[in-house]
Design goal:
Helix content is about 85%, strand content about 5%. By secondary structure, the protein is mainly alpha-helical. It has a two-stranded antiparallel ribbon with strand order 1-2. Keywords: Membrane, Transmembrane, Transmembrane helix.
Length: about 130
C-alpha cells in the first residue's frame, strides 16, 4: 500500500512540475500579440508589467500546488489522527494505571511468593549438588 501512495505522489508532483514548466515556457516565448481568454474576456499581454504579473501568478500557483496543498492535507488529516491517537493512548495509560493501583496488593503478594519459592528451589538445588 505504501508503494501505491509513493507512485501517486510522484505522478502528481511530476504533473504539477510539467504544468509549471509549460506555463513558464509560454511566458518566455516572444509573442507580440498573445492574449489570454478568461471567462470569455480577452486579456492581451503586451507590456512588461503584464508579463511580470503573469510570471508572478505562475510562481504563486506553483508554490501553492507544491507546498501549501500538501501542508493543508497533512495538517487537516494527519494532525487530527495524531490527536485522537494521543487521547486513546492517554486513556489506555490511565486504565492501566488504575488497574495497577487496584491490583497492587495482589501484585505484592505474587512478588513475595515468587521470592520465597525461588529461594527454596535454589536451596534444594544446592543441597542436592552438595550431597553428590
Amino acid at each position: 500500500m505504501k508503494t501505491a501512495f509513493k507512485i501517486l505522489f510522484a505522478v502528481t508532483a511530476l504533473m504539477v512540475l510539467l504544468a509549471l514548466l509549460a506555463g513558464a515556457t509560454l511566458l518566455t516565448q516572444d509573442f507580440t500579440d498573445m492574449h489570454v481568454v478568461i471567462n470569455d474576456e480577452e486579456v492581451f499581454l503586451s507590456g512588461m508589467g503584464d508579463w511580470l504579473g503573469a510570471g508572478l501568478g505562475l510562481l504563486i500557483s506553483g508554490v501553492v500546488c507544491l507546498i501549501v496543498v500538501p501542508l493543508v492535507l497533512l495538517l487537516g488529516v494527519a494532525l487530527p489522527l495524531l490527536i485522537v491517537g494521543g487521547v486513546v493512548a492517554a486513556v489506555i495509560a490511565m486504565v492501566l494505571g488504575v488497574g495497577a493501583v487496584l491490583g497492587s496488593p495482589l501484585i505484592l503478594l505474587a512478588l513475595l511468593l515468587f521470592v520465597v519459592l525461588r529461594n527454596r528451589s535454589r536451596a534444594n538445588a544446592a543441597r542436592s549438588a552438595a550431597s553428590v
